[in-house]
Write a structure and sequence with these properties.
eight-stranded mixed beta sheet; D-Amino Acid Oxidase, Chain A, domain 2; alpha+beta
């Protein structure tokens, strides 16, 4: 078969929401973009069912998606604003409690809960009309870099050449591996168990989270109407139990935590419970010659703060801004430009890694002195409004 080369300014490897957002951003900046999608990948399809994979998007993500003309294309009836958040030490009323609300943070919403399907539908629709974006279906086999360009070789003999290759291909990033970027990896011994429920009482836009040293971290996030989405960071053995038992039994377990606030829970789709392993992944670099990593390819954190996708969208925003501000004589894969991107992201990424890992460790021990300190700390922080506003402002990206 003849070998063809697709020439562009930026080649993005990965077909997730972060990679698609980057493709739209570079396109709107007037750059030529090739987006490498896995063979057989299909656009998200609309469904009346509720997707068990949801994201708590913060203000940074919302501003990015608004600028890309994607936020307004979301199905607004399936987006739920988070008006407040209540955090508990465990199911006990005496375990310590922390409250955040939009009013105290001087904003309309703390975050927005968006289904993965809804987000990807909007991104796919925008990409159909994007200028200078070429979507290529194929499997990459080799990445070669020289002084002038990077070249991604495909399994069928074709290749993609660009001044910059962006690795947006997830936690097991092929791009990162090709660049031989080292990685610190530690499994948490937990799985994220997700499912959706109807709730007897209205949630009023409140997100709930319980830290239980024996059973992990349970979060119930508001969906439109009287519905909630569960994200349970459960120890491996417990996660397997939750997956084996009927969803009604899972709802009964949750009642120990949320019956007072939400009443009885009813599974929306009784057969639909999913789980994914939870790990901490710290690549030793976010860049390599003519390569930038974004999203899970660049960092994987514990989902207890719900910021994995937000970090990825912040990567996109920073990379777009850094390349837009480069000197005229530098191309978008210039080493100095990429170093600026890495420096700009270093502090926020490190802070989120340390915070989520520290909280996972703190609330994962059942030592009585630590439990007492947790309770005191939550209650004390709840009565320090200035510090609370700073914390929630950082989480929102303000």
């Amino acid at each position: 078969m003849p070998k063809n080369t697709n020439h562009s300014d930026v080649c993005i490897v990965g077909n997730g929401a972060v990679g698609k957002a980057a493709a739209l951003g570079f396109s709107q900046a007037g750059l030529r973009v090739s987006l490498l999608s896995p063979p057989g990948a299909t656009p998200a399809v609309r469904s009346e069912d509720w997707d068990v994979r949801v994201y708590a998007l913060n203000h940074v993500a919302q501003r990015l998606l608004s600028g890309l003309k994607v936020w307004g294309a979301l199905d607004a009836e399936r987006v739920a604003p988070v008006e407040a958040m209540q955090v508990y030490g465990d199911a006990s009323s005496a375990a310590g409690k922390l409250n955040f609300d939009a009013y105290g943070a001087h904003t309309d919403s703390l975050a927005w809960i968006v289904e993965d399907r809804n987000l990807n539908q909007a991104l796919d629709s925008a990409l159909k009309f994007a200028q200078n974006v070429s979507i290529v279906a194929g499997r990459a086999t080799e990445l070669r870099v020289d002084a002038d360009e990077a070249r991604v070789q495909l399994e069928n003999g074709d290749s993609l050449s660009a001044a910059l290759v962006v690795g947006a291909d997830g936690a097991q990033s092929w791009v990162r591996g090709q660049c031989e970027i080292g990685l610190d990896y530690r499994p948490y011994g937990q799985q994220g168990v997700v499912s959706n429920f109807a709730c007897e009482k209205p949630h009023n836009g409140v997100a709930y989270q319980w830290f239980d040293e024996a059973h992990g971290i349970i979060a119930l996030l508001p969906l439109p109407g009287q519905r909630v989405s569960l994200v349970w960071s459960a120890p491996d053995a417990l996660a397997q139990e939750l997956l084996r038992e009927p969803t009604a039994a899972l709802a009964a377990r949750l009642a120990a935590y949320c019956a007072q606030q939400l009443g009885e829970l009813t599974p929306l789709q009784p057969e639909l419970v999913r789980a994914f392993p939870l790990n901490l992944m710290r690549p030793h670099a976010m860049t390599a010659p003519r390569v930038a990593l974004i999203g899970d390819a660049a960092h994987v954190v514990h989902p207890l703060a719900g910021h994995g996708m937000n970090l990825g969208f912040a990567d996109v925003r920073t990379l777009l801004d850094t390349i837009a501000q480069r000197e005229e004589h530098r191309d978008c894969g210039d080493g100095r430009v990429l170093n600026r991107y890495a420096r700009a992201r270093k502090e926020e990424v490190l802070l989120m890694q340390l915070t989520t890992d520290g909280l996972a460790r703190l609330f994962g021990t059942d030592l009585e002195p630590v439990r007492l300190a947790r309770k005191i700390g939550l209650n004390l922080l709840d009565h320090l409004p200035v510090l609370k506003r700073k914390l929630i402002g950082h989480a929102m990206g303000k």
